[in-house]
Amino acid sequence: MQTFPIPENLSPALMAIGERHWQELTERDLFDPTWHAHKAQLCQVFALSDFVARQCIQHPHFVQAILTPFSHEGKTPEYKTLLAAELRDVTSEEQLHKTLRLFRHLHMARITLADITNQQSIEDSLTRVSALSQALIVQASQWLRTELAKRFGLPMGSLGEQPMYIIGMGKLGGRELNFSSDIDLIFTYPEQGMTQGGRKSIEHQQFFTKLAQKLITALHHITVDGQVYRVDMRLRPFGESGPLVMHFAAMEDYYQEQGREWERYAMVKGRVLNPDETYYPEIADILRPFIYRRYLDYSALDSLRKMKAMIKKEVRRRQLSNNIKLGQGGIREAEFIVQSLQLIRGGREPALQEQGLLHNLQLLIDMEILPSKDATALKHSYLWLRKVEHCLQQFDDKQTQVLPDNDIDKLRLCAILGVKDYQQFSAQLAEHTGVIHEQFLLLIGEDAAPELDKDDDALSPLEDLWLLPLSSDEREELLGQWLNQEQAQPFSHALGEFADSLSASRIGQRGENILNKLIPQLLLIILQQSPDTASQSLNRCLQVFRAIYGRTAYLDLLFENQGALKQLVSLCSSSPWVTDQISRFPLLLDELLNPAQLVNPTALNEYNAELRLAMLRVDESDLEQQMEALRQFKLCQQLKIAAADTTGVLPVMKVSDHLTFLAQSIIRQVVNLAWQQMTEKYGEPDYPHDPTEQHDMLSRGFAVIGYGKLGGYELGYGSDLDLVFLHNCTSRAPTNGPKAIESGLFYLKLAQRILHLFNTKTASGHLYEVDMRLRPSGNAGLLVCHIDGFSEYQTQTAWTWEHQALTRARFIVGSPNLAQAFSVVRHQILAQKRDLKPLQESVTQMREKMRKHLGSSSKTGFDLKQDSGGIADIEFIVQYYVLAYAWEYPALTKWPDNVRILAQLKASELLSSQDTELLAEAYLTYRNTNHRLVLQQAEQAPDGGEFSALRDGVVRIWQQIFVS
């Protein structure tokens, strides 16, 4: 047992402080004149502890109690019994809070007096502080439980009434709590069910969550009387994102499937504060096999090496020489030595499964695991540091392990420890920390975590940033070499949030190891880019990492391929849309392996061949795999197009061309698959044969017509497909298969099958959203229409807006005969001679209707499509001219895309060169901007004036045509 002399002959500076506090006490109304007899003792105590002085001044009735010595040397007061008696008359939570705080302050003041006057050993002090804390936590929990039970009844289980077990972690669990400490808790209960016997029955989970919340408030909340303890719940399963309370089965699943080495290390000191004889053996049986292996667990050495390396790095980086806990040779290193040996040997030596450091240190000597001389020196130095720690915290009840930087506290420290001056104290400190650090270095060896010790000036601080438990201020300071404070704050916040989220993940130890190597590399790549976008890039990249951190194959891919990691950063930085695609479909990461190929999309005439090649790799009898292969092909090709787009390789017209040709190849393949499936079941229909047609599955009386953006070669990222299905079968004969159906019905079922292949969601999502509302009679019409019926509808029934839509329609895939027939019908309809006035009215009415329902109400943004002077105005102008003048200028029906129609309008001199060029420029500018907005996931373009000249020009032309 380590002893220190009782302080005597305090310095004048300290005695002046004691006298000042004494004077304040004498001025209180409740001052008892008999206390004058104890003035010398009280002044000495007040001089050494502002905390004790403050408590006595605020609560004069404490004075007599703190002057009463502990009844028996080494015996801890019965805090549980004392507190239970005081809580007996408590009738409200407000009273509970006050009682707990006053009880805590009184008995902490008594412990402080005994400590600073060296009337008790540091071992006894640690035991009493821990016992006091345990009594406060458990008794508060029991009082709150009783109150909750009055309303909700009690949670009952297979063995009777269920408790909420409170697991104390760290020094609380080890019965070695420091004076002014946080308390780390974990709550658990035995079984799920419903409460019984109350006015309102609720689930056990709800009951115990309410109890836990109230207990945390009772301890943690700051009132006029202060607080009892700061409560930290981050060590529970899943960390801050996990449930506050967890039942046994869920806790067992977590620790079996997801528990990590650092949690094993932390749980070595975990102790149930309120054990009983009913369910307690079960929770002990759950935790024990997680913490301790049945063999000498040298597999833990690798993780312990990494922990040790992190400790060394943190000490070195933060220069913690004045921190007696975290600094080199500090309290934490001593704890690490003992807990590591417990973790390694506790499975074979059950005696080492006790939580206390001092108890286990003695066992390590008895078992000859540590040499007696070394272990004794370690214990002596550890207790000396714990005494210093208590002194520092008892000066003013503050949680600190930092040596004083003011003369008063230095004088106090020297007086309590019995050293003549601070220089002598510093010499003793160096001696004790040297003893501990020597043992720390010998424990595992110096081959610790080579990846953490790389001499890489750029990467090393980022390893610290990721691996060390830094505060936000410390993270921002570390980022200072790359970012200013305004840039560092969101960057630090994003990284901290991501680190917190990992505690709730199923990442596993191997994935965590890879991630710990990978994240610093990711940070370095991001920070070497533009500081202005660093936090944005980090957020996007971490979005991808959140999607893949449970899949180590993808983590390995990025770690082993620096080019792929850099490409990921580049793509995510350029576009949140791309980020979202990769997050939703991590298979796209494979495309990053060849950066050169990634920004070099497939040639327009090669999409069909590439898709056929991809489909050959799939079993043609496995429909699900075929559907998945189609979706994966689309996703990968779309990513290549976006990569080329964001790097400027493809201009806007080419981007739309690639997206359009990609869609066409997929439509072709889908129709092919649908036809194959239909004919296998029903046989072929009796369609009109043309001996001049090539024998092709897609030339058998069926065609797909594309409208809108697909028809106009103007598809964007995420565009729907506007489709119309046509056939030319007039026969009522049955199909020639085993399950024959009428030939016309075959084409209806074929259309349904095509839509099924497009719309069904697989692991890679749906293929395309397909819109069929432009078919004859819209949603009320048949899914597939005979070409003659289509012609009749367009001639006799269709509205003007449907003829407008036809200007942007074209044949996509199917029978050449139908292609020709559709072209004829389309030209005939568009080339009809129309009265201009009614046409103008119809077009403007439809435009106003669209603007009303779809236009932007924003005063600051510009809806590129629907707002005045936007894309829709240009499209309506073009469509009007086709419908108004194609009878006179047939070339206007040749093309379905607006840019080439505008060229025809210029050639026909229906519009001036100036106006057609302005409309073409505006149209391409808007489309290009729209691509950018989609890639940035923005709904509107900011109205900063850059579009004003184009908008004004479009509006002028519109008014010139439709208003004048």
Give a brief rundown of this model:
Residues 460-964 are annotated as: Adenylyl transferase. This protein is mainly alpha-helical and 964 residues long. It has four domains: 69-291, Beta Polymerase, domain 2 (2-Layer Sandwich); 300-452, Nucleotidyltransferases  domain 2 (Four Helix Bundle (Hemerythrin (Met), subunit A), Up-down Bundle), CATH 1.20.120.330; 649-830, 2-Layer Sandwich (Beta Polymerase, domain 2); 834-962, Up-down Bundle (Four Helix Bundle (Hemerythrin (Met), subunit A)).
Explain this structure.
It catalyses: [glutamine synthetase]-L-tyrosine + ATP = [glutamine synthetase]-O(4)-(5'-adenylyl)-L-tyrosine + diphosphate; [glutamine synthetase]-O(4)-(5'-adenylyl)-L-tyrosine + phosphate = [glutamine synthetase]-L-tyrosine + ADP. Keywords: ATP-binding, Magnesium, Multifunctional enzyme, Nucleotide-binding, Nucleotidyltransferase, Transferase. One of its GO terms (cellular component) is cytosol. This protein is mainly alpha-helical and 964 residues long. It folds into four domains: 69-291, Beta Polymerase, domain 2 (2-Layer Sandwich); 300-452, Up-down Bundle (Four Helix Bundle (Hemerythrin (Met), subunit A)), CATH 1.20.120; 649-830, 2-Layer Sandwich (Beta Polymerase, domain 2); 834-962, Up-down Bundle (Four Helix Bundle (Hemerythrin (Met), subunit A)), CATH 1.20.120. Helices cover 58% and strands 6% of the residues. The chain contains 40 helices and 15 strands. The strands form four sheets. Strands 3, 4, 6, 7 and 8 form a five-stranded mixed sheet that branches. Strands 9, 10, 11, 12 and 13 form a five-stranded mixed sheet that branches. α2 (39-48) crosses α3 and α22 (508-527) packs parallel to α24 (552-560). The protein starts with 11 loop residues before the first helix and ends with a helix.
